Amino acid sequence: xxxxxxxxxxxxxxxxxxxxxxxxxQGAAIFQHGLPGLPACVSCxxxxxxxxxxxxxxxxxxxxxxxxxxxxxxxxxxGGVMHAIAGKMSPQTMRKLAVWIASLRPHTRVSxxxxxxxxxxxRLMVIGDWSRGIPACIDxxxxxxxxxGLNIPALAGQQETYLAARLRWFQTERQAQSTPTLIMxxxxxxxxxxxxxxxxxxxxxxxxxxxRWTPGSRSARLSSVVHSPDTFIPPxxxxxxxxxxxxxxxxxxxxxxxGTTIYAKKYVGRENRLSCVHxxxxxxxxxxxxxxxxxxxxxxxxxxxxxRVNTLVMRIQGCFxxxxxxxxxxxxxxxxxxxxAYIRWLATGLPTGVxxxxxxxxxxxxxxxxxxxxxxxxxxxxxxxxxxxxxxxxRVNAGKMLFxxxxxxxxxxxxxxxxxxxxxxxxxxxNMPYGAGGxxxxxxxxxxxxxxxSHARPQDxxxxxxxxxxxxxxxxx
Amino acid sequence: xxxxxxxxxxxxxxxxxxxxxxxxxQGAAIFQHGLPGLPACVSCxxxxxxxxxxxxxxxxxxxxxxxxxxxxxxxxxxGGVMHAIAGKMSPQTMRKLAVWIASLRPHTRVSxxxxxxxxxxxRLMVIGDWSRGIPACIDxxxxxxxxxGLNIPALAGQQETYLAARLRWFQTERQAQSTPTLIMxxxxxxxxxxxxxxxxxxxxxxxxxxxRWTPGSRSARLSSVVHSPDTFIPPxxxxxxxxxxxxxxxxxxxxxxxGTTIYAKKYVGRENRLSCVHxxxxxxxxxxxxxxxxxxxxxxxxxxxxxRVNTLVMRIQGCFxxxxxxxxxxxxxxxxxxxxAYIRWLATGLPTGVxxxxxxxxxxxxxxxxxxxxxxxxxxxxxxxxxxxxxxxxRVNAGKMLFxxxxxxxxxxxxxxxxxxxxxxxxxxxNMPYGAGGxxxxxxxxxxxxxxxSHARPQDxxxxxxxxxxxxxxxxx
Lengths: 477, 477
Known about the structure:
homodimer; mainly alpha; two-stranded antiparallel sheet; 23 helices
């Protein structure tokens, strides 16, 4: 019971009991036939929950459904008839329904996908618009917008009217308590009515294959415009020059940046699951998340970490050594050359050698009290666990590390910058929860950082001993 | 006799016969006592040729003295009484005097050096002002302006009135035939009357120790001014930030750039004598000599030379491999980091990723005729040999490679860009003779380049075989 309440409060999900998993037919029966005083779900939501008068439920995860039923019952989510219906359900009934519905695969229209020509709205789904704080839909809802089967709903092929109504409702939500509502209220708040209509229309047509966006035919070479460092915007994807070896290197560099464990696998620690983009949000572009363009023009730079002037190459090698717990790619390796090509391209037009305000993460002051990892754990359960998991192991979806692991074997090692509580706090304050950066106060960010960094993770490689050294009792320099 | 005429025509110097070297006292006697009908030199030029009514002659090289006596005799150099006196000398007498005078050490005033507070004129002597095409005086006249003892006269401690008159005379010389006059006419032509007065005054006070110039106390941090790429001027030496690790790296990078064989010795081929500055003139700043600031913002760049996208680090490694016939410094080696720091500092304020007109050398068209290395040899003797030697081995002075060797074991190998005739021709056209760039026509530049590149030099390391490969008959990839 304590677990259920916590789940409701935090949106982190329900621990489903073994006997319920073995009895999805109980949920199926309720869905088809109702219970005494409870109408059958099928009447509105259609056979196999594929939608009818009401929205499609197939494709929603069991935690999500359970959470929504509780919200309807408590009146935290407006839903007309659903307030009354859910109000009659016991928590057990809710869970039975959730388990069964979550087992159904959504149907989507086939081959409508290619017809979606609305490039601005595709761009919003695939790239987002971080200038308004809007991350890409696919960043959380899966590359095909099919959801994660647990907490995050499928959007592809959902009813257009339902999607539009839901986004409009998020726009009105000013006192969000739960993390998903907090995030979606922020995101929807940045959308225009027209964008909401276009998003709902487009999502309803999606067929369950990955959404793609490619720069239009109006691509143009970037002129040598000199940007002011205060208002710098990296070149758009459309500004890549026509196919050339350098453009190919830039593109491959972006692939490595977005999927480091795949495209730079040999340099990533065997157990490590992190990609560059997990810390450097919005493809390395976001001004408040250590943007790559600011680093590109700032290095070489003295770093007290290794008591040396570091070139950009050396700095990137540091990321592989610590954040990726791996092996530094040699300076002339294709991985390094492609990353440098991508990073320098992001800085196109920026003056060399300047220190931009955007360098690194926005500064965060010292906390008023010593960081409290017990309080951090409570906040983590409320604000972070839905994506990163209460076990901190993040979430893989369709082979992609949707949300990064924060500790343990799969995460950064003890030598990484993120293992310094102050740096992690600065990142969290500015950027977390994803899509709702700035919503935590500084003390909360410090407490969460202290909790996250209190967990075991791979050792700092600078401290590791070789077997020979260990036998002699010495340490590696 | 043919040799003497050639020497007179070309200014490259006299081959001194062995018997003359063993008889300097003949020159001494003529200097002290004259010959029948020839007044004693000592009357005007003072004891030990330290100057009196006339200028000091001690400190002038034997080729220089011989050349001047011929020029006085022929009326090519104005000199009042010297026209009549030299006109009475036989070539043998001229050579005897030249050999003896060249053996005398010049006296300079002691401890006046530190009193020279004229920073602009010191800067001119040590740095030059390439915006007016004026190289530093020390680039040819030795770091202490003591000359090279052969072709290039000592200036330190020379009579002020003489120095000023000579520079003013160079200013009037419009039809220069000899290479030194061609060069000095260009340089003096760029000086103001006030600068000539200040230079003569300052040089007369020099005490024979190396001339130094350090940025004044009005040093300022460079603000993040955004320069237009068309009018870019690298930051002045005064713009280095106050002592810091990065500033130290920039300074050390400049030292390496200027004295690569000394400060990056381990990466320079054992026999190689080239430094970065020998191709990248004016400390890597000169817009018409592959300026480092243009490279800094252009890389990464695809190069057909190695069929790869190259980072700046890789490009510099290429210089060490080919131009310096050595070993590429690893990306994280202090030598590489310091060079990158210096090069990126030179580009301070330049927009990242732009292709500047100044990148590389100014383009030179295809020659009208096939490059003619026989004609190139004649031109080389006239225009190049005074500095680089007829043997192409350049000139060491006071431990410094004053003029670089152009072929043979001490020069770049066959894989270097300068071994491509077109690239060498472009460099020569724009920059040679040193201080008089642009004075050769394109065809002449092609011919000289063809002559220079026709000589033996170290093999392209890409073609070299390992012993094992050679035994098997295979080649390294």
